[in-house]
Amino acid sequence: MVEAVRAGHSLRYVANTFRVSVSTVVYWIEQADGKRIDRVRFANRKPGRAWNRTPARIEQRILRVRRELRERSVLGEYGADAIGITLQQRATVPSPTAVTQVPARATIYRVLERHGVLDATHRQRWPAPPKGWYLPALAAAKTELDSFDFIEDLKIASGPLVSVLTGVSLHAALTAAWIMPRPSAKATVDALLGHWREHGLPGYAQFDNDTIFQGAHQFADTVGRVSRLCLALRVVPVFAPPREPGFQNSIEGFNALWQTKVWQRHHCRNVAALESISARYIVAHRAKTAVRREAAPQRRNFPARFTFDLRAPLAGTMIFVRRSTEHGDVNLLGHTFRIAENWLHRLVRCDIDFTHQHIRFYALRRREPADQPLLCETHYARPHKPFIGSP
Questions:
Q1: What is the tens place of the pLDDT at every residue in 65-100?
Q2: Under a CB-based contact definition with an 8 Å cutoff, are residues 186 and 285 in contact?
Q3: Rounded Cα distance, 73 and 337, in Å
């Protein structure tokens, strides 16, 4: 080993060649430092095998059994589990070469790894897609997305149940929280109007599929109050797919953070105390993440003379992210659309253009987030349904 290192080979190359650790090579290099090879006493300083290492005869037995199983096993199994079972079976038969104490599975695996006879390929780890990968403009950081969600049924001691509407932007980490007696679409609209007047408009607003955000589910072609507000402000509402991990990570993470740092940390006697503590936390959190807002995409100014008309005709784009069925169908707005027979159980982005009355369906893959081919386009003329409810 010393001669090989002095010849110019690397420590790791020498360690792999002699099947020892790099630290062993370093130990002997230090012992022979500045000395001729013939004057170094290696015999009395050889580290030898570790006291708890598997004996060489058992290692050879494990390798022999593996070779036999690979060539003759009916099942074709010759991994650590199969070798352990075979050694256990042969231990019951008296034989000079039998192993009396069968090594554990982990020990057998390490022996196979040490001798380089593992055939299994490790799981391929693909890099995570960029934030907002399902929306190209968002992934390229050309626009911003605000996510909103509810934390429901928080019980104040000796007080009422309350709910919290939370919000967070994807790139700028701009957070917000509103304490409400109960979740409602009207209260959500008021909160969004105040938030966007103060901080500006994002390009997208993302929600889950709750009826508060999306509208009633029992009627087809229904567009709720919150969605109409987004369309009126030219903010594209985006609805995440149900039961899909990843799409709601930002808002779910902030929900957990708010509950840990505000709700669970402080004992609030009434709603006013909770609102005060939550407001102070939001101010501190925004100060902490201020540097992210400096590099975030620019938000649009809120219209100076904006009036919200719930009965105005719908215009603009609404996006649903859905997973296709086993027949290549996608269900949204109470309708079933056939998109592609070869795109089954896959993610699809559905862009509903109310202005031009059509829906475009795009294929989504986390492995290739930038490749989003158009699957099909279909005509969609939403029937005129006046908004039912008080302004």
A1: 999 999 998 888 898 999 999 998 888 776 665 666
A2: no
A3: 51
Distance CA 18, CA 28 (A): 13
Number of domains in the chain: 3
> Phi, psi (5° rounding) for residue 348?
-135, 135
CA distances from 102 to 57, 81, 91 (A): 13, 12, 8
Pair (209, 265) in one structural domain = yes
Domain-embedded: residue 264? yes
Per the domain annotation, does 108 fall within a domain? Answer: yes
25-59 burial by CB neighbour count: b if 16+ within 10 A, else e? beebeeebeeeeeeeeeeeeeeeeeeeeebeeebb
Same domain (yes/no): 239, 362: yes
Domain match, 268 and 202 both: yes
pLDDT tens digits, one per residue of 144-169: 999 999 999 999 988 889 999 999 99
224 and 296 in a single domain? The answer is yes
Q: Does one domain contain both 107 and 163?
A: no
Please name the residue that has the structure tokens 């005709």: 313
- pTM of the complete model: 0.71
